[in-house]
Write the structure tokens for this entry.
Amino acid sequence: MECFECGKDAVIYLPYTNKNLCKKHFVKMFEKRFRKTVREFNFIKKNDIVVVGLSGGKDSTVLLHLLASLRKDLPFKLKALTIDEGIKNYRPKTMKVAKKEAKKLNVPLTILSFKKEAGKTLDEIFKKKKELPCSYCGVIRRYLLNKGSKKLKATKLAIGHNLDDVAQTVLMNVMRNEPLRLVRYNEPLIQDKKFIPRIRPLMRTPEKEIAVYAMLKGIDITHIPCPYAEFAFRQDIRRVLNELEEKYPGNKFRIANSFISMQKWMKEGLKNEKFELDYCPQCKEPSSEGKCMYCSMMEKLG
Amino acid sequence: MLLILDDKKKKMDFKGTASQLLKKLKIRREEVVIKINDKLAPETTEVNGKDKVEIIKVVFGG
């Protein structure tokens, strides 16, 4: 198959544009889209301290590479933070990649572990609770990412959320009837110095293209699934969206674009509402009401 | 055609595009990348009897 742009051998087919692209033109398009997203949402300003939540999976590893390259044109500090959830046969492999890639790019890496910070690994939590490990993992990981970023004096926390994640998050929050979660996606309703703003520079990039980019650029990625992924609601949504995408190419882009448009209107509609922030009486971190999710979970786990 | 899927090798008779092969194997296109004769290739590529086709899962979750 020939590249739509130059006629050379194509490496990827983009169904949403019905075009085949070669390595050179795919990489060019991919990097341009990343930079355009950073500008569109004003994600990074000069002299920011950006901490990447680096799991060592393909999304965050590619994000680290793209941000490291962006520093040539925009001066900002780049650091990486890895959370070790304690998942046997999975996390040690991705952590090895995280350490290797951070070292290669000369980006300082900090590692926080569930075991040290929360007293239990995710494997131990699952053994004890035998229920929804992803809920525990999500809350504890977010808490530690925020805590770690603050310690590193971050002004932004960059995470590897891609287009697929955005489309999944939109559907999940609609299906769970949680519209406020959608409104605050990318930008919290209440600014607080204890919340490090999260940025998602890959939010307009399909997940599959991140894998292809990594392979073409020789970025080390692991092809192993999280053993707990099957328990997640997100996994069902992922499957449905990927089936729909085959029938209706461009579906994920349209969901994300609709969401971004609607979010502006929702924010406009809420501008006179007063949202108050509470602080957890135990850990003193911001909380929507009383004790935070993290402390409540820690209590449940005993 | 030599098919490699999940590190397992298998010989099979198939004629068509890589995309049609994925459909036959009930594999979602959005979750894999294809290598034909060790090179990344679009799913629109025709596969013939002498080809080595590797299907690599890249979308897992987690």
